[in-house]
Amino acid sequence: MSKNATINRTNGYPQVRRMRFRFGEPEPMTRHFADGDIVLSHLSALLSAAFPPGEDSFVRSVRRVSGQIDDPVLKKRAAGFIGQEAMHGQQHRVLNDELVKMGYLLVRVPHFAPGSRREKAFIRAENLIPARVHLAATAAAEHFTSVLARRVLTSPELQQIASANPEVRNLLNWHALEELEHKSVAFDVYRASGGGEAVRIGVMTIPYVGVIPFVAGAVALSILTDPRAWRPITVARQAIDVLRGPLVKGLQAEVREYLRPGFHPDDLDTEALVRHWQRELFGSDGELLDRVR
Ligand SMILES: [Fe+2]
Ligand SMILES: [Fe+2]
Question: Which of 43, 85, 215, 289 has the fewest beta carbons closer than 10 A?
Answer without folding.
Answer: 289
